[in-house]
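User: hey, got a sec? need Probable nicotinate-nucleotide adenylyltransferase folded
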Amino acid sequence: MSNKFVVPRFVAQAVPPHTEGMRIGLLGGSFNPPHQAHRAISRFALRRLQLDRVWWLVTPGNPLKENGNLHELGARMQAARDVADDPRIEVSCLESVIRTRYTIDTINTLRRRFSGLRFVWIMGADNLAQFHRWQDWRRIAGQVPMAVIDRPPQSFRALASPAAQALSRYRLPESKAALLADQSAPAWVFLTGLKLNLSSTGLRNPDGSWKGTK
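Assistant: Yep! Here you go:
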């Protein structure tokens, strides 16, 4: 989808407060529903990558998933704020504002309009395993450093994936994770040590409603 649909005066309103030079982690997803693993991944990334903030980018819909049971955006955003419960984790509807479901559009917009910020894309190992299916995945990797959070038992599948193999020479040792935000893309790190395996799929009922809610 083209960025010609961006409405500039609304973009700044959809981006959380920030100051020049901040190190910002970007965690995209449907958050349908958000859960404690999202929070744990974010706090883990804040510490290991020495980030100032993590922004949760709540997507209007995942192009690689069936979105028939996707809850309304406002409900997912409010639930995300409730789960985040940390002043360093901010929730954004930027992708809805720029009318895209593609990460490449989101990154292009952020880098163009907020060039003074240092962004890191955060994803779970399960997403690295299918990263080669994302729209313009090579361009994504070439524009922003990436942190991949291990999610056992996905480790082997993720590291053997086409994207991981193609980008293998750009992988930093885990001991240099704190330097990732300062690297020129492509650059990525695989972070181990977080042992949470919750998923939004496991927290939905067959009719799409969220478990624990009516």
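Quick note: Residues 1-7, 200-211 have pLDDT under 50 and may be disordered. Let me know if you need anything else on Probable nicotinate-nucleotide adenylyltransferase.
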